[in-house]
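User: Fold both of these, please.

Assistant: Here is the first one.
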Amino acid sequence: MKSYLTVKDILQRKHFDHIEVIAGTEGLNRLVKWVHVVEVTNIRNLLNGYELILTTGVAWRENKDSFISIVHQLIDSQAAGLCIEIGTYTSLIPQEIIDIANKFHFPVILFHKEVPFVAITQDIHTLLINQQYRIISDLEEYSQSLNKKLLKIEHYNDILKCIQHYLHVQVIIHFSNNDFQFTPEMNEHDKHILLEKIEGLQAQENFTSIASIPIQLLGDDYAELIIFSANRSLTEFDQLILDRTATALAQFFLRELYVEEKRRVEEAEWLNSWLLGEQSEDSIKEFITFHSPAVKPIGAVVCLYQLDSNRTYTSLDLTYMKIYFRSIFEQKGFTLFAIEKRNTIIFIFLNERTPSTWKIRIEEGISRLKSSESQSGKLQENLVIGIGKYVEQLSTIHKSYQTAAETLRIQRKLSNKQDTHFYDDLHIFRLISQINHHLDLKEMVLEYLEPVFAYDKKYNGKLIETLKIYLSCNGSKQETAKKLYIVRQTLYHRIEKLEKLLGDDFMNPEKRLAIEFMILAYEFLESSNRVGMINRD
């Protein structure tokens, strides 16, 4: 389908019987969007581009410098070409004009007989307007054709073939994982050359032989659709067809993701037994090979996403979240399996890249989630995520699951709400949590710190705060006073009081270590219970 007019097409119309193309023959394929009659010397601001200019030459009246200036203005304004009526005001075209037009492939056409400019403009404008109506009709027909295809196609390549056959261009789809699909197919050498050429064209400000559009899924770029023509400039119609095709591809990919997610729901029972440590290494490999044949995992880790207990989620919401996580973390080298359990979405991340970088890549993914949420609000405002230990043996995934759950439990109890999601980063809080499971941690804390609690409660002495800062500053009085915003004399008084309550040896290494541990344990218990624990009652 010819969705555009060129200078060459215009020259086939009536009133162009007695013409001569004297320059710029290589530019006869320039697009024509309108026809203007111009008889002035300053025209740079009168044009929008792609106009075919008709003139008698009265504006320059054999003035070569004015003629050259007009030609340069037309070229700079992206005009389609210049048609000059020879005889009344212009009888000879200077060689300089011909040289300039040839250099820039700018067509210069002579009318050797008088022609009615009004009739030409009326004819061409009618043609252009009718063409716009036809474009709208053809665009609607193409869109309906795509919608029908979406009901029965099984592979996105059918959509790529559709636009390729319709526009007769080279079609390329570039996925976010850096995979390319060419339609029609090309050999590797030609692919490499074409991609380099496209990259070079995209670096230019004015390129008309290539057009591209992102394909977005759930607010993120999933792929880029590119069309390229070596024979013609691409038009607005090509861009509209490209846009409709990208929309159809997005619908197809989203449908595929939802179908895939539905299939994964059916796998939930098996995945749950895996998380409980009830599957062997062989059965796990068989499961992965069946569902994701291309995946070759070299380790795994469990990630728990805690849902907001005050919010009601539909099955569509949960499916959306799982797809959203998958779309981000699969780009980081992970294959995800997911199930829902007790207000939590459990993700098993199968690592396909270097094990030493797994944590960095997950951190990048979480950062992407947070930045996306600040703009789109797809997930809940505060991401509550717990990531367990990385395991090399897939049959030991239950250890990662248990530690991920422990990470969430500890996170909920931390008073300072540390911005960490990894079990490996909890360090001493893991030990505190374990002790709290098996011993009376509150009793241990009171054994060391009860005199300080009692003093603060009675005199509001802020000794616990002072003790914590003093220890964190490694006993530096100057730094401690600065952080507490108090004078040194006040600090000296508080330290003397601490020595009386804790003993003047409280800064000795072993005792200091125990006291620091008990302060952290105290904060852990306080944030857990949210009730006073200073009094034994």
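And the second sequence with its predicted structure:
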Amino acid sequence: MRRLLLPLLLLAAAGLGLLSEPPGEPSGTQCLEHDCFSVFWQPAAFSEASAACERRGGHLMTVRSTVAEDALALLLQNRSGSLWLGLRLPHGCPEPAQRLRGFQWVTGDRRTDYVNWRRAPGRCGPRCVAVARDLRWEERRCEAPADGFLCEFNYGNSCPKLRAPAALNVTYATPFGARGNDFLALPPGSVARAAALGLELRCAESGSDGGLRWGRESPGAWACELGNGGCDEECRDKDGRPRCSCLPGTRLGTDGRSCVSLCAGAPCQHLCVPDGAGFHCMCDAGYELAADGSSCQDVDDCATKPGICDQECLNTEGGFECRCHSGYEMVEGHCRAVPHCRKANCAHVCEDVPGGYRCHCFSGYIVDPQQATQCVLHCNRSECPAECDPRTEESCECPDGFILDDREGGLKFCIDINECDMNYCEHNCTNHPGSYACHCHAGYMPVDQHRCKKVGDEEEMYSGDREPSTEVPAATRTPPKAGPLHPGVLVGITVGILSMVLVLLALVCHLVKKRCRSPSSMDYKCSGSAEKEMGLHQVTPACASSSQKL
């Protein structure tokens, strides 16, 4: 950017300070697209200089970039002396580690991409910054007057310099008092005077697009050699009078210089399309043109386009909305039945079926009879590999009705428990992998899962022509899941059984000894009766025989 602007700034230097300016007006001004910088060679303290810039609608100059530095160099050329910049230290001491050393711009911020200090930080207390022809920044006491000051004026847009032959000698004046005839750009409110034409133009907002342009209060074009007569398109002199003309599809605005669309000011509610020397109105999709030819009214798409929706159609302003019945959802513009599995809680696999869903289990599992959405381990053989957690070797599971069996090599299997050996059934029993089934003898019927009762004479044994059933199966009861017994438990059971056998043997010996006492003892107890004595003699041989067996 510096390479592009510097040549332009050098070309504009001829217009700086060439006019004899009255006191209080800038001695030189340079304007860019959004900024103007002016120099005032009037001695003043920092506060006085700042107030003078503010009265003109600006503030003391901020030099934040090399572009501003180039403008500053042009303003200071061929002049010596110090000028205030808009940089100050309100209080405290300088901070060498910071780019601005703790100083701040008069705009209240410390943002900058450029610094040019002359020497190391000076003393503490309020300090201000001045600049000389070498462009170096120097700290000074704020109350000491400098030889002048630099003002900065900012604006959003600008008017370009008018194209005109040199003979016309057009001069310009800015709102802050700068005058000259060779500006690159002029801020809003600036005035251009062409004395030879007796013409005065002002840089102001245009009524058509809100941009800045040169104009005057009276409509129509001025001399075409000065800024194309103010015309947007073509300026022609006809019969000694300048006139503006516009391209097809546009027309002259009320000022007689700008070109506006044929649709400008058209009453169309939605769209306007230029049509020859006029226009016609159109409406957005979902609307139709009303009878007045300019307003638009909504079209009921649901009524004019039957079947546009699968199930329900709701007309809206400028369009329509398709909806689905309960139990359906919109998928790519069509209603589809909501999958029941979306709301199911199947542990493994879910299958949508008409009117509902069905849960399935992975291999090695079956659906839990107590909870249809859950799965439990299942084995349909007498033995199956155990379900083990690979992260924990001892964490293995077997289906109900199986017991874990450790094999050589760390293999773990689930072995079926034969519940029929546990006498669960009152009559007959059939073992199945993981379960069992009880059956009753002929002439009996089940009372519950295990017990049977005899069929009474009053109960019918036949039904129609069917043969009587010889066996009535009872419902299978799955026993509690068995696990491997701890060796300590087996030892305890063995010790208990042996203890009971020893107790029984001791009891039998005691009874035998009691019955086989010596004759003297028996005679003593039976001396009172001859019949008893006879009875004792009959018993004695038996006792003797028992003693011999023992």
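Confidence is low (pLDDT under 50) at residues 1-23, 457-483, 516-550.
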